[in-house]
Amino acid sequence: MVQHKDQHWVPRSYLEAWTDPNALEHYEPYVHLFDRTGNQHRKKSPAKILHMPDLYTIFDGTTRDLTIEHTFSQWEDAFVKVRKKIEADTDLTEEDVANLYVFAGALMVRPPHYIEHFASQWRDIVAKARSIKINPKAKPMKSFTDGPSLSLDEAQRYGDDPMGTWFRDNLAANIEVLAERFGFDLLVNQSEHPFLTSDAPAVTYHPPLSKRFRFFPRGLGSPGCEVTLPISPRYALLFRHKEPGLHKYLVADWESVFEMNFRTITRAKEKIVSDRPDLFFVKTILDRVAEVEAEKQRNGANGA
Description:
The protein has helices at residues 12-15, 67-87, 94-109, 112-131, 152-160, 167-181, 254-267, 281-303; strands at residues 6-8, 31-35, 42-44, 51-53, 58-60, 63-65, 182-189, 197-198, 203-205, 226-230, 235-241, 245-252, 271-274. The chain is α+β, with helices and mostly antiparallel strands and 304 residues long.
């Protein structure tokens, strides 16, 4: 039997916080899984969702290298221990805080659609490069950089083998940026509605730009950038540009919970997860999305 074949990009242990507390005792614990519109409701075990075969496996000939998968498992165990301390209202140590940074930073880059986005860019570059017809009599162009270069075969591997090439460096850089540029607050949900989660739970948020700057590229260093991560129906992390570390425990009222769930739902790839069958927020959030899109269209028409 192949070991560690199914690999979760949203960890099972993370999702267990959303198991329905009202499920009957003889049932296997389950979460409520929906599509992004709040439909196609299913009750599913956290072990049976949001995973793919060998998503993080590095293949070296006939060998399956599970280094990344085992590392994620260690980080997940550390996160669960911190979450239990939060739920028990126990003070967090510096190591606990560091573990939250690592877990959140990793969740930002673990989803398969994120990995595929960058892998497809490399494949597109190689395809375009291979389509260029080169005059064999032409003199080679002088390099404009002194840095390392990639052959087409090496660049092709970046597209075909993310785990064996760029993914680990990307993962480390993402965690490093989060830890160096962001401090975070812990939101405590005091409303009657839960924080939801999704198949892409770590959300990067950028405030709207003025028309003058709307085409500027934005990243984690962009002014006003925030990263949000619900860690249970009652708790969520809010990362903002400020001194690194845990700053405050903030009460999340109805409006704060709505905003958090708005980001979670609208940035989900396909699925959202709740601890209950009633998704109070979805229609309200989708109505708000429709209003925003209509406003964009009106502004575009006026600008034309």
